[in-house]
Write a structure and sequence with these properties.
It is built from nine helices and 26 strands. It has a five-stranded parallel sheet. The chain has a five-stranded parallel sheet with strand order 9-16-10-11-12, with helices on one face. The radius of gyration is 22 Å and the shape is globular. The chain has three domains: 176 residues, FAD/NAD(P)-binding domain (3-Layer(bba) Sandwich), CATH 3.50.50.60; 111 residues, FAD/NAD(P)-binding domain; 78 residues, Enolase-like, domain 1 (2-Layer Sandwich), CATH 3.30.390.30. By secondary structure, the protein is α/β, with parallel strands linked by helices. Strand 10, helix 4 and strand 11 form a beta-alpha-beta unit. The chain starts with a strand and ends in a 15-residue tail after the last helix. 23% of the residues lie in helices and 29% in strands.
């Protein structure tokens, strides 16, 4: 009997990998193992449409319940893998049984970082990662409820938006000077600060939390921010425990090459957990966004089948907050750019922002302007020098900016 291809992590990434294996003609056993009881689903709605009651639960799933049987995918839910033995080529499950594999794919994702203060696991404290977390948060978002959000990253701001739209009184607490400061830099971060203030959110920057009580959040200076519910969004950590214990190379995620192959030739990784070499940047990068979970599995599955597949897509993410919709294409380190060029109506929140280094576009963010991501992607990938004045001019077509590609 042909050895099974085992996928650890019944997530979007895991489900898409299983789908690709079948699309590419693999007829052997495929086992998809997940510790959640919910069949694979997409996570962005958990802080957006699903949290707000606008997206039905059935709509968040990757495939129908019947799809797995129809494609001979052995889907094992409510089951965790507790160990990986690379020598014996077996995984051990929570019930003590084991399963052999020919190839192994890790799509174990990430977990929310816990706040290291007293009360951080209290009954009124919520972390968002799984569908049941979103259900619990939605149950407390009611008119007049007082909600404190700790952390002004994407999860914090999206849940703050949902809470305000539900009629809650919302306070956002952030250690940095602005929301999303490390991700967007000061210039673009101010847009999101203004957005939330305009919608009545009490933003408090430069504050530190000392404890969470049943009455709310106490800050380092002794101030008590009264709250009926506390939502914590202070980042995530990749779930690398299995990989590390198995002896795979781990460094800010499971290290992999551009084929998503790890330090073991028959083990691959995709999604939040992988820190994969990116040909465009010449080094490994780990991106915690939906697009990686959607696209990397195709590369990983094809690589598992011995095909010459490379993951070189530009990082991409999106957000929806109040009336603001945004897409971001590219990758920029916090200190890796020289300037930000805005094109359009920034106060009216209808613009494109470009991050530049040496007059080359590193990334672009389109806000309430659509159908430009391909053009932004082309500008980034080309490495062409651009004229910043032309870039800022809405009357100059984006596809006419820049010189010939650089080699």
């Amino acid at each position: 009997m042909e050895s099974a291809y085992v996928i650890v992590g019944a997530s979007l990434a895991g489900a898409k990998a299983a789908e690709t294996l079948r699309e590419e003609g693999f007829e052997g056993p495929v086992v998809l193992i997940g510790d959640e009881r919910e069949r694979p689903y997409e996570r962005p709605p958990l802080s957006k449409g699903y949290l707000m009651g606008k997206t039905a639960r059935e709509k968040i799933h990757v495939h129908s319940p019947e799809w797995y049987g129809e494609h001979s995918i052995d889907l094992r839910l409510g089951t965790a893998v507790t160990a990986v033995d690379l020598t014996a080529r077996r995984v051990t499950l929570t019930d003590g049984s084991s399963l052999g594999f020919g190839k192994l794919l890790l799509t174990t994702g990430s977990s929310p970082r816990r706040l290291p203060v007293p009360g951080a696991d209290g009954a009124n404290v919520h972390y968002l990662r799984r569908v049941e977390d979103s259900d619990r948060i939605r149950s407390v978002l009611r008119p007049g409820a007082r909600v404190a959000v700790i952390g002004a990253g994407w999860i914090g701001l999206e849940t703050a938006s949902a809470a305000r739209e539900a009629g809650c009184t919302v306070t956002v607490l952030e250690r940095a000077e602005l929301p999303l400061l490390r991700v967007l830099g000061r210039e673009a971060a101010q847009v999101f600060a203004d957005l939330h203030r305009d919608h009545g959110v009490d933003l408090r920057f430069g504050v530190q939390v000392s404890e969470i009580t049943e009455h709310g959040v106490r800050l380092r200076d002794g101030t008590l921010v009264e709250a009926d519910a506390v939502i914590v969004g202070v980042g995530v950590a990749p779930n690398t425990q299995l990989a590390a214990a198995a002896g795979l190379t781990v460094d800010n995620g499971v290290l992999a090459d551009q084929h998503l192959q790890t330090s073991h030739p028959d083990v691959f990784a995709a999604g939040d957990v992988v820190n994969a070499f990116h040909p465009l940047y010449g080094r490994p990068i780990r991106v915690e966004h939906w697009a990686n979970a959607l696209h990397q599995p195709r590369t990983a599955a094809r690589s598992m089948l011995g095909e010459e597949a490379v993951h070189d897509r530009l990082p991409y993410f999106f957000t929806d907050q109040y009336e603001l919709g945004m897409e971001y294409t590219g990758y920029v380190e916090p200190d890796g750019y020289d300037r930000v060029v805005f094109r359009g109506d920034v106060p009216g929140r209808q613009f494109i922002a470009f991050w530049l280094s040496g007059n080359r576009v590193l990334a672009g963010m389109n806000v309430n302007i659509w159908d430009v991501t391909d053009t932004i992607r082309d500008l980034v990938r080309s490495g062409r020098p651009v004229d910043p004045d032309a870039l800022a001019d809405p009357d100059t077509p984006l596809d006419r900016i820049g010189g010939p590609p650089q080699h």
